[in-house]
Protein 1
Amino acid sequence: MAKADQTLTSLQKLYDKRSALDKQIVAAEKKLVSEAKTPAATTKKTAAKKTTAKKKTTAKKPAKK
């Protein structure tokens, strides 16, 4: 029985290591997803700012006589 207990103990240690690695993988995936979403949101905001700036500059020009 000692050999079976030793095998079960080693399996439990391996499962614990696997669980820890799974948690690290999930955390890394979340980080990558958030980084991928951030530039897309920044690009949309920048485009909106440029459009607003163009509208403001065209509205301020005085009419020519």
Protein 2
Amino acid sequence: MILGQSKRIQTIGVLAVFSLTLILIATGSVACGQKSAETTAAPEAEKATALKEGLNDFEGTVVVASEKYFFLKEVQGIDILVPGMPNLASLEGKSIKLQGEFNRERPSLLVANKIQTAEAEVFARSAEPDFSDYVDLKERASYPALKFVNILTVEAWEGKGKGKIFGKLQKQTVTEGGATKDVYRLNANDDKGKLVGAVIIDGFTDYASYYFKKLRLFDSFWFYLKIKESTDPKVRLKNKDLFHADVVCVGLF
């Protein structure tokens, strides 16, 4: 009897240890998965730096700069708008001191008030900021994902005014009138991933160009489009160009 009870106790013990091992393995797998996701997180998904209302002071290195915007490595999750500074891109790679103004109405944006390099003060704000091309996360949510059926179903884009497509930008250099120029297209697929046609990209806002540089490690993302005129139906049937658009923002979500 005692021997039987001992065997039962041993069996229960072995099952308990086995169960505990499975739990630890599962927990470890989840933790590793979370760590991997955090390690590979996109720049725009990083945790934002805490800011206070009004003026904020930072020191850091400029990673990316366009005509109006730049990204400071030490100010994660925040875009910095510089109103009226020529040659802003020349700050790339430089260490600076920044004084910027934060307004909770634009939680991912800082407006530069002063910028100083090791040599001198290179910017002091003297003009009101222009927010006309800035696209915040709330506005992004108002762009519907365009669903394409075929090249003749113009309802997929006409009348919408704006929309977004996930894809990779294609560049082609053509010659017109003896001069060369770059033509950009964005592939448009149906819900099964089959190519329907292409969107002709006429232009990019500075905010979109800035994000192209900021997301330089990626080649495919969401393109937020200002939809313009459709192509002529005969042209559309011939070369599958659907409509013209301007890119106002790009992002990983």
Protein 3
Amino acid sequence: MFFQIFTVAVIIMGAVITGCRSQQPTTQPRSSSPFGVTSKPPCTVFDDEINFAATGFANGPRSQLGVLQRTALANAQDMIRAKMEHAYEGFIDTYMGSVGANQGTDVETETRGVGRQTIMQVVGNTSHSCLEFSNVDEKGNVDCFIAITIPKAKISQAIADNLSKSQKEEIRNRAADMRKEADEYFKNLRNE
């Protein structure tokens, strides 16, 4: 009798221990990085003293490579446009302060508007400097990567040219000086 009770107790105890072990959470080794495993995507470009730069991304079916390429290009253009507009707004704030223009004047308003239009035109006419596609994944999708760069001097020149065409005499008189200051401002700007 004692042997039977002892055997049943050992079996129950073994079942409890096995059950407890199976419910213990499994722990993954912790990474020292708060971002987990990261990697640098293909076609990665960064702004430097000479160029504004951006990398665009798109993901979709391999049968739509042309659409993916256009989407990645639009993505890169949106990023570079945002950088350029931010840099231009900072430049205009600095420039208008240095020439003593009051906030909200016609000259400042027109200068900002001409700059935004010019940025849209320049960015809209970009082409890529790098194009790569990933391998096809298990769902039949690919990643598309496109890099674009735009010389900072090109945007400075285009804005100065468009300001020179403006009807405002004060803007025309300052366009050349503004271009020189914009070249220097953009050269020293580093958005990465």
Protein 4
Amino acid sequence: MKTTKATIKSFIRKNTENLYINVKSEFDGMTDMCENQKGGFGKATMTDEYKNNRLGVSGAWFVGSSRDYFNDYNDGVFTGYEVYNCCGTFILAVKK
């Protein structure tokens, strides 16, 4: 089954209390490119800011218009989805 933005929305909604995020890279306007981040997984913070682009998750950023790409993610500890686009890469996951 193909992963879509609707799949990610449902995953966030079902796992709000147990959701983790790992921001691997994010866009930096000073360098005009995506910069690597090395923060690792942390408990996701929910926000109402930029609701359409964040889908309620601080640190997440969806550009929309079919320009977001999704992969399943499983490292043995966390399972979820990797999201990447022109603004960066992040993983939304829950502990197994």
